[in-house]
Amino acid sequence: LMNMALHSFDDQYLGCREQMTEELERGDYFQKEIAANKKYLSLWKQAQEALLKSPVGLLREMHESHAVVLMAYTMNSSLHSQLNSATSIAGSSPEHYRHNFSFKYFHFYLTTAIQIMKQWQNSKESTGKNKCYRVHRGVKDLYIKAMVGSRVRFGRFTSTSRLWKEAQKFGNETLFTVTTCLGAAVQGFSHYTSEKEVLIPPYEIFLVKNFSRTQQGNRLHLQSVGNYSTYHCQLLQASRSKNSGFTAPASAILPSVIGVLLCLARQ
Asked: Which site in 3, 62, 186, 187 is 20 to 30 Å from 69, CA atoms measured?
């Protein structure tokens, strides 16, 4: 049963991108992460090689690492599932994130890559409104359920496709149709460009508009209603607390849509 995935590590890194970049370099987090995971480095190198063949250049705010993590993530390796499994529980406590989450570098660059891509896509909209995408996601061997009218998050990085037939290739047991307003189209930095991939961040909130069971499987329709994060620049807080001897509490970010917290409180 889908819910708000409150154990997810859902940091949006709002207002602290530069400090985070400096902290990740100072703490040598990339080297620590590749040392702890054999597949990490080989996938990173594969992604770098794939980018050399890509005709797409970096956006203005992008570092090379933003492009590499997007390419690496869309390669659908075992690291993809390891990252998401870890992300879904790393927010259970600040201590768990600090001591047990071995994707701090990857999580930061993937989160901010989605935000940079999204900002650029929004800027191309003549209406001045945020660009929302109607996308699809197929899940194999899992019959996922949700209560109509409830608010949910995926609580992990979620790959979707603008093409229904592409989504079905990944599974038919559960099929999502999702309107995402925080997910970014990552086709230019995706290993499989034909998938027309849109990547949804862990912190986006959705209203369950419809849920049905069919002979083919479960069908869900989700509509974006904002965002919610328990954590705010947590690595910096952890670094400060390490130096001061205090444990930093998790912070809350207000959702972008007024009233979402009120709606959550009423449930």
From this structure: 3
Query: Rounded to whole angstroms, how far apart are CA atoms 190 and 47?
Result: 10
User: What would the pLDDT profile of 58-86 be if each residue is shown by its tens digit?
Assistant: 998 999 999 999 999 999 899 999 999 99
151/237 Cα distance (integer angstroms): 29
- Spell out the alpha helix ranges (H) of 8-74: 17-26, 29-36, 38-52, 64-74
Q: Which CATH class is domain 17-266?
A: alpha beta
Cα–Cα distance between 235 and 150 in angstroms, integer?
31
Residue 256 to residue 202: CA distance in whole angstroms = 15
pLDDT at 33 over 90: yes
Tell me if 89 sits within 8 A of 7, measured CB to CB: yes
pLDDT at 254 over 70: no
Tell me: the pLDDT tens digits for 190-219?
Answer: 998 889 999 999 999 999 999 999 999 999
Strand partners, 151: 207
Enter the tokens of residue 37.
């995971």
Q: Where are the chain's structural domains?
A: 17-266
Phi, psi dihedral angles at 162 (to 5 degrees): -75, -10
Pairing between β-strand 197-200 and β-strand 133-139 as defined by DSSP bridges: unpaired
> How many other C-beta atoms can be found within 10 angstroms of the C-beta atom of residue 25?
11
Pairing of strands 158-161, 174-180: unpaired
3 state SS of 259: coil
The model's pLDDT over 13-31, given as tens digits with 9 standing for 90+, comes to: 999 999 999 999 999 999 9
